[in-house]
Design brief:
By secondary structure, this protein is an all-alpha fold. The chain has one domain. About 80% of the residues lie in helices and about 0% in strands. The chain is built from seven helices and two strands; from the N terminus they run αααααααββ. The model has no long low-confidence stretch (mean pLDDT about 85).
């Protein structure tokens, strides 16, 4: 049961990595540093004071960067693989009672996969926002993503089942919206390969 609970915490935190890479790492570091979260032996460094300071600085820089026009889109290209790596590391750090092979397999599939799905949806949403509003709505989107990352991270630590369900609900919500948008685009009538007015 403890392994399942740890996996749920990891999935919730991994989803939060899809919104902001360093916010969940900072939350894990704070929770481990204060004794509210147990980490696998090889990941105890995440609860150190040095890691806490490093994650705090990285979090502030990442948050600020997403409010700079056009830098936010550029940052998405770097943050996409970083989110997958962070989600994998967080999940692996929490699932301690499994063999290394099974731990890393679960971490990559569950943690990295969930982080990648969430990050992919945020990247598409930001690209759409940039294309339709010239980037004017991107700060609102950045604030929503930050809120999603903080709420999902904290919820995953305090109420792991609710945090995992929140992560799944967020993925489902965004997936449904993207599917509807894709249907609208494919439903546009065409004449000779060009959209009709």
């Amino acid at each position: 049961m403890e392994t399942v609970l740890s996996l749920l915490i990891g999935i919730g935190l991994s989803a939060a990595c899809g919104f902001r890479v360093f916010v969940p790492l900072l939350v894990v570091s704070i929770a481990a540093n204060t004794g509210h979260l147990s980490l696998a032996k090889s990941f105890l460094w995440m609860g150190s004071d040095a890691a806490l300071i490093a994650f705090a600085v990285a979090t502030v820089l990442e948050i600020a960067a997403y409010y700079v026009p056009w830098l936010d889109n550029l940052l998405d290209t770097v943050a996409s693989p970083a989110a997958v790596v962070a989600g994998t590391i967080i999940t692996a750090s929490l699932v301690a009672d499994l063999s290394p092979f099974l731990r890393w397999t679960l971490a990559v599939i569950a943690g990295g996969g969930v982080a990648g799905l969430v990050k992919g949806t945020t990247v598409l949403t930001r690209a759409t926002s940039t294309a339709t509003t010239g980037g004017l709505a991107n700060p609102i989107l950045a604030t929503a993503e930050l809120g999603g990352s903080v709420v999902t991270s904290v919820m995953s630590i305090i109420a792991p089942v609710a945090g995992a369900l929140l992560a799944i609900a967020l993925i489902a919500f965004v997936g449904v919206r993207l599917a509807k948008k894709r249907q609208k685009v494919s439903a546009v009538p065409t004449l000779g390969g060009k959209p009709c007015s």
